[in-house]
Design a protein that fits this description.
Elements: H1 4-8, H2 11-14, H3 18-27, E1 29-33, E2 38-40, E3 48-54, E4 57-63, E5 66-73, E6 78-79, H4 81-86, E7 93-96, E8 100-106, H5 107-116, H6 118-144, H7 147-162, E9 163-165, E10 170-172, H8 178-185, H9 189-201, E11 205-208, E12 211-214, H10 217-221
Antiparallel strand pairs: 1-8, 2-7, 3-6, 3-8, 4-5, 4-7, 9-10, 10-12, 11-12
Helix pairs in contact: 5-6, 8-9
Bound molecules: adenosine-3',5'-cyclic-monophosphate (CMP).
Amino acid sequence: MVRLNYLKKVTFFSELEESDLKKIVQIGKNQRFLKDKTIFNENTSGERFYIVLSGRIKIFTRSGEKKKTLAILDRGEFFGEMALLDMEPRSASSIALTESELVVIKKQDFRKLLAKYPRISFQIMKTLSQRLRQADKEIEALTFGDVIGRLANTLLEFGKKYGQETQEGLKINMAFSHQDIAEVVGTGREMVSRVLNRFKRLNCITYSNRFIVLTDQNKLKQWVR
Ligand code: CMP
């Protein structure tokens, strides 16, 4: 059974009442996924809802050889709700980027939970609205923006999510390869390398070991549409 104290610390749960948390605890099961383990694939039928207790999960779609990262989810975030709500196949694939511990809830239990506890439904709707907002912004950037602007924006978003203040600047405390970044931005790896080099020459970023450090966020912001 999932530990209650642990759940209380994570964002999605911290806004719920203790009684709601207990319901989730009773219904869910903990499951550990090793790094690089696929949790489910796009277009398969959805049977489970997942909450991230620890680790990091990538949500992505694929078109031929190309991949697009839709989201990277951390502790306290959930996924797998869409197929359980609209009964359509999975809209995207999910994979553990690091070893991860998830709360897994079966489809029928998830639906019962929502029907019975409006506060839990409300929290899920709130998150879905935030994700739609984010997706709308991304559509705008893909439609009207250019790669440089999108990459600058991605670096700033990474800074918000994974940033750690250092003497040099805001260090993105997660190792992303140029390919990882390309899949988030929606471009090729070579283009990412080229633009990162340009940002480096302009003193917007630097590298510390394999980590990117944002040395001038205001300058980066000027590239964002
Ligand atoms: P589902 O369609 O069941 O399976 C894939 C899951 O990825 C989906 O539910 C959502 O939980 C999640 N997902 C899809 N698109 C996004 C997005 N743009 N941002 C965050 N999560 C997403």
